[in-house]
Design a protein that fits this description.
The chain is mainly beta and 220 residues long. The chain contains two helices and eleven strands, in the order αββββββαβββββ. It folds into two domains: 29 residues, no CATH class; 181 residues, Lipocalin, CATH 2.40.128.
Length: 220
């Protein structure tokens, strides 16, 4: 899966040449001014590869398509949930990985663990604080090869904290576009998710596993 270059055009400056001539012992009569030679035309700038990078194929997530799941340990047992609302955009060319881009925006209040009381605790100010931080966002400004696959190189902003995060990705071509999928792990305490008693990992583990599979359609 291969998910997400600036050049400067050279410019030339031409010079004007002016010459005068004088002869004889007596003061010469003023010579008419020499006509300035026309400036040489500046060489045409090469086509900008920045434009090419901006024209990378663009893919978007259809509303309601795909899955973004999370998993953590609570009181020694594995707890799973998912986000019902999130949006994904991808600019991608397998031959221009460094110019490819990935953006994922998650609506945090849409978290769902199939248990209302637990969802309310997770959304509270002591954990995700979805009232103050209603969205989380991952923004990658490039892709890189990683073993036999790819990884997105970007930043994750969660709970008001931004950190560098590399996300493993697989990109598979489909009839309508591409599908991205993968799995990664983050530490909630690095993003300040867990205040007061919830800073302890005795009842809720620090590691949170994320799994994603999202079909994307080529945007016209």
């Amino acid at each position: 899966m291969r998910i997400m270059t600036n050049y400067l055009a050279p410019f030339a400056i031409s010079a004007l040449l002016i010459s005068t001539a004088c002869s004889g012992a007596e003061p010469p009569a003023p010579s008419p001014p020499t006509a300035a030679r026309p400036a040489a035309a500046a060489p045409a700038a090469p086509a900008s590869t920045t434009a090419a990078a901006g024209a990378l194929p663009r893919f978007v997530q259809a509303a309601g398509a795909g899955s973004l799941e999370f998993e953590f340990v609570q009181a020694g047992a594995v707890t799973q949930g998912h986000f019902r609302k999130f949006a994904t955009e991808l600019q991608y060319d397998e031959n221009q990985l460094a110019a490819s881009k990935l953006k994922v925006t998650v609506q945090m209040p849409s978290l769902d663990t199939q248990e209302k009381d637990r969802d309310e605790v997770l959304a509270s100010a002591e954990l995700f604080d979805t009232g103050k931080f209603p969205t989380a966002q991952y923004s990658a400004t490039g892709l890189a090869e990683r073993g036999s696959g790819l990884e997105a190189v970007g930043k994750l902003t969660l709970h008001g904290v931004t950190r560098d995060v590399r996300v493993p990705l697989t990109i598979r071509t489909t009839n309508n576009g591409v599908e991205i999928s993968g799995e990664t792990t983050i530490r909630r305490l690095e993003f300040g998710v867990g205040q007061g008693d919830w800073k302890s990992t005795e009842w809720v583990g620090d590691e949170v596993k994320l799994r994603y599979r999202v079909p994307l359609t080529r945007s016209k």
